[in-house]
Amino acid sequence: MKFAGAGTLQRTARRAAGGTRFWEVDAARGVAFLLMVVYHTAFDLAAFGGWPIAVTLGGWRMFADFIASLFLFVSGVSLVLAHQRLGSDPVRYRRHLVRRFSRLAAAALLVTVVTWFVSPADVVLFGILHLILVSNLVSLPLLRLREWNLLIAGAAAVLGFFLGRLPGNPWLFWLGLVPEGYRSFDFRPLFPWLAFVLLGVSFGVWFYGRGVRRWRLPEAATLPGTGLLVWLGRHSLLLYLVHQPVLIVLLTAIGAIDLQRLIG
To answer: What is the pLDDT confidence band of residue 20, given thresholds at 50, 70 and 90?
Structure first.
């Protein structure tokens, strides 16, 4: 993977500002990616280095939930924008959806396979990528409901609250019926997390009505660092897949973690 230079980042920002994409959507995804790198660095230090970081509790847990929420929200906005941009051409729109969901499915499957080899007891069966894939598929037919998805988002949140208090089911855990003692490196059930995708759909319809921003924003190329964030956002799926191996290699190289903990 070749990283973009300063000139490339500036051109990316200009294209995002003047093209059919909205730069702030890609930039928001880029911010989510950077925050995820921070969290996963702390996670790796705790899990593979024995550092006393409670990454699953308190503020760190809230931080992880915020990152997941941001990714999901942006994915809902992106669904709306793709429909606005390509919906009038059914063939192109269908090809876009097939390409989008095929990449997500392949990436999610790769995460499952890799984590199974690393630690079968903590294998990722329904992590953030699986959730984005399924929640986006569920949200597609709901796009026609436009702002009414705000109410459905509320219903999804309430349903998740109640499912979390019912007995778990090993076949329906991905819905929110989580068996007691279930472990995974990454787990986000469809309910209540679908709510954040639908919030993104509702916001996308409201803020980008007819493909135009409701409020004027500064040009991307005029804001420092925007080009980098846009570039990260546009390549976030690939970067998601490679960032953990890179982090582990770097942390091992500087002696912050013990690779034996990972493979043992």
So the answer is: low
